[in-house]
Design goal:
Blueprint (H helix, E strand, L loop, with lengths): L1 H4 L21 H7 L8 E2 L2 H4 L4 H16 L1 H7 L1 H16 L7 E4 L2 H17 L8 E5 L4 H10 L6 E5 L8 H15 L6 E7 L11 H10 L4 E5 L11 H4 L3 E5 L11 E5 L21 H6 L7 H4 L1 H8 L5 H24 L13 E5 L9 H15 L1 E2 L2 E3 L10 E2 L2 E2 L2 E6 L6 H17 L10
Parallel strand pairs: 1-10, 3-4, 3-5, 5-6, 6-7
Antiparallel strand pairs: 2-8, 7-8, 9-14, 11-14, 12-13
Helix pairs in contact: 4-5, 7-8, 9-10, 15-17
Length: about 450
């Protein structure tokens, strides 16, 4: 049981502003909260789909039953107030000025559609010119790229993709590349109309210096900035006033324990962004994004209603959500360093540039030489070792940045996550599985394919 104690109930001092713990969560209770997870699986990929505790699932079921018992009464007298209660909690968590700046939507992909359909309208109406652009990082989430393809490219806009340095050593490297991208957007008299900046990139996983990049955007008269913080809430501090973006989105189901699927979207009221609309047009169209998002037709709204229950859950831990974030960061760094040293490789970024996920180089001898090799290794780890972890292929060609171990260039990385249910043995199993591959002399192209 000790393995369950250490990462969950550490020595983080509780914040005096937090409610005093009346019943700190025990190891037994924590095991019960996640007892619906498939047994015997080393689940070190919380970053993809998150994790919802049993008590929150129970609260969700209660909301669902309340609706089914009397749908009309629930719709007219309960739903809006319940969503408003959740929005008020999010407002305080992210230090927004006004609850009307907060909308609850399905996920970060929905937020991208909201922002990019607005940008597309500006192109089609002639407000923006054909030389004008949207700027993103090359590793931006694929659905965001698809939204640009759907809403912006057909009406004359273009996109600039900035290469994220990886492995990365400092914020300055990222800022320098971003500035180059901004300058490319000015060629032939064009303007960068929208910057989409990840707060934490997904693959590879790196915390981006968003405040500094937004300052660059303002200095270069970029019209709007949309921060995609899909992984942020519950993983790192989010203060929207300090960040200074026009739009900010973060999923609640990845690191904030909600059931799928709910995210918050922040729209800075000082920017008078009156022309943003939910992509699903329903009865509330034209009444503001919070109202439009609160009813997009008949669907399950229970994920939006359980935020008060999530706060009850996280406040059972020392330090509340801040304590959870600190312990997750410390543990993922500790486990990343352990794996790096065991394999003789490297970290994808300094510890201060990660939150609750970190990239670790794989030994060059197993030869992750393509995306297909990365998928083969991931499948092998899942099926033959019951380890769930993403594998990333990093092509060579970065000059001095290309990482090496004693046998050659490192072209494969794993992205490990740490959440409250993880134990040290999860990471030891990954360490052993990779070492076993080395001892057996196997390379990725020889592994079975899903």
């Amino acid at each position: 049981m000790d393995n369950h104690d250490d990462p969950r109930n550490g020595t983080v001092q509780p914040d005096s502003k937090k409610p005093k713990l009346t019943h700190p969560i025990s190891s037994h209770e924590l095991l019960h909260e996640f007892s619906h997870h498939q047994t015997a699986v080393a689940r070190i990929n919380n970053g993809s789909f998150g994790s919802c505790p049993r008590s929150i699932l129970t609260a969700q079921t209660t909301w669902q039953l309340r609706f089914l018992q009397q749908p009309d009464d629930f719709f007219f007298n309960t739903l809006r107030n319940g969503i408003l209660d959740s929005r008020k909690i999010i407002k305080n968590l992210i230090n927004a000025d006004d609850v009307e700046e907060i909308s609850l939507i399905d996920n970060a992909t929905t937020a991208a559609a909201i922002v990019l359909q607005q940008i597309g309208h500006h192109f089609s109406s002639g407000k923006f010119c054909r030389n004008d652009t949207v700027i993103i990082f090359h590793c931006a989430y694929q659905a965001v790229k698809k939204s640009i393809e759907a809403y912006v490219i057909p009406v004359g806009g273009s996109v600039i993709e900035v290469e994220l340095p990886f492995p990365v050593n400092s914020n300055e490297e990222i800022i320098a590349e971003f500035k180059k991208g901004i300058e490319r957007g000015k060629i032939n008299g064009g303007r960068v109309r929208l910057a989409i900046i990840d707060h934490i990139t997904s693959m590879p996983s790196v915390v981006i210096p968003v405040r500094e990049l937004i300052r660059v955007c303002r200095e270069n008269e970029v019209d709007q900035v949309f921060v995609d913080g899909a992984h942020a809430l519950g993983s790192m501090e989010v203060d929207v006033k300090e960040i200074g973006a026009d739009f900010y989105v973060s999923n609640l189901y990845k690191w904030f324990f909600s059931p799928p699927s709910v995210a918050f979207m922040y729209c800075n009221k000082n920017k008078k962004l009156n022309d943003v609309h939910h992509p699903v047009v329903a009865h509330e169209y034209g009444n503001g994004l919070p109202a439009e998002s609160a009813w997009v037709g008949m669907r399950d709204y229970s994920p939006q209603l359980v935020v008060p229950s999530i706060m009850e859950f996280v406040n059972r831990f020392e330090g509340g959500i801040e304590g959870i974030m600190k312990r997750n960061h410390n543990m993922v760094v500790k486990m990343g360093v352990m794996l790096k040293e065991a394999w003789g490789t490297n970290l994808g970024s300094p510890p201060e540039m990660c939150a609750s996920m970190i990239m670790i180089g794989l030994p060059s001898k197993i030869r992750v030489m393509s995306d297909d090799d990365a998928l083969r290794l991931r499948f092998y780890l899942r099926v033959y070792h019951a380890i769930e972890v993403p594998v990333y292929y990093q092509a060579l060609g970065n000059g001095e940045r290309d990482a090496r171990d004693k046998d050659g260039f490192i072209t494969g990385y794993v992205r490990i996550s740490h959440q409250v249910y993880n134990i040290v043995d999860d990471y030891n199993r990954l360490k052993t599985a990779i070492i076993q591959l080395l001892q057996d002399g196997k390379i990725c192209s020889e592994l079975p394919k899903e």
